[in-house]
């Protein structure tokens, strides 16, 4: 057999195996599913470019069918055989993985797949990227360990160039361990025994895996900081393996119109002046394009594209001496739902990019201008969709290592406690929180960081909040949403169910922005669209849409008075039903809207009346 015939036979075998896997694949379990699960391209799931702020054309997607195996944690060597196929990037517990198995602290999850390098990768360094893997993993390429990572919510990459063979198939192995709530790591609402407000575990790869070809010297990142008062944007660049004399050319565009351009040293910063800037806001989400070229002796070595917005978030006292949250130097009341970001078929992972965008668009149609992303971090494309739609985002740090005492009433002494975390637990928290803030810094939609929720693992509050503010001085920090109050940070945040209330302005308003971080939770189980047939749960349950809307409208009717008194923002629980929680604005499968979006939009307009607040 000639080499040509052998290679053709190999391609045929691979095609047969992939086709067979596709034909035999089906979603696991019998739980409800979204319509997007039927539209899922199992040959190429989540095919979109996954990194909107550092775009290159030379890349390839590794989502699709991988082999998987579960084995005891005591056996760290690679498995001799695999249990079957898993559809990446869906977690093994999810229906769309095609597996639907739990893992737990005593087992390891292994992944395997082979790939061939595209011809366009020849002569380039090869980077292997993971959007997110929950929680701890080691990656091998051709049996060579290329790196380890801890953290379930931040993207990471390895240079795998030296592990690659010169030709033929390349093999990736990924070993994952995730203790869920048996460990101290950030894990949000995942628990090994789901009930109430606690949900199914998510283990392993749950975002896109992809390869990228880069030159020896290449742009590794940018940091984009707008200053609307100076009509400028600062662009900092980082470059790997730069040589003396290398330069970076940074150009800003409005469509096809060049706005500004500056040449700087590799790894340096440029400050571009944007004349007559159009400011990004929910009503006018203007994004400007960036082209960034790495030059050597005047010739391009590497190039990426990105974007930025001219947007400012700040605080200032109103005419009554109450701190207010300002957007672009104006008071804008921020109102949005608590958004868990869970899916009945994909768990942490939306079935498709269209589905990922759906919740944002529906939230906007219902007249909300903000989303609080609750103890979960989304793929970068979710924030990109928020940027495009003009949706403000409050980003929570995923919680973990819980067990301390919670006092939800601000200003009460004697009950609240900080969690006494181990040095390992503290280091895990700070490492991942810092990575999240760095990796998502460039998304203008994010305006508030929330390090703690309801005292869930809240520790060294003043130290962590001040450290968070230092990491990103361009955004506001909500100390502990509904958690144990300490006089630090920009915001004091009250949780109250079901009716809306606010922190007392005369006690807290002079120093901090007043926020109602959670309220509502009005439940309506819809037959045929629930996670389970009975024993569903809501903070207050109703039997029909009419009574649900009436109660919700009563809540909204009192909020304008609270805005006049000092309230700057409110968060309603929640966007969708999640598992046994039935207090969503829509069902978990997104098939039924419990409220008319048009009716809610009209109802919410009273909250944005600028006449409610007089600034100085």
Q: Report the C-alpha radius of gyration, rounded.
A: 25 Å
C-alpha geometry: globular
Contiguous low-pLDDT stretches (5 residues minimum) are 6-17
**In whole angstroms, how far apart are the ends?**
85 Å
Major sheet attributes? 8 strands, parallel
> What quaternary form is this?
single chain
Sheet with most strands: strand arrangement: 28-26-25-24-23-34-31-30
Explain the overall architecture:
- The structure is a single chain.
- By secondary structure, the chain is α/β, with parallel strands linked by helices.
- Helix content is 18%, strand content 31%.
- The strands form 9 sheets. Strands 28-26-25-24-23-34-31-30 form an 8-stranded parallel beta sheet, with helices on one face. The chain has a 6-stranded antiparallel beta sheet with strand order 3-2-4-10-7-8, with helices on one face. A 4-stranded antiparallel beta sheet has the order 1-12-5-9, with no helix packed on it.
- It starts with a helix and ends in a 12-residue tail after the last helix.
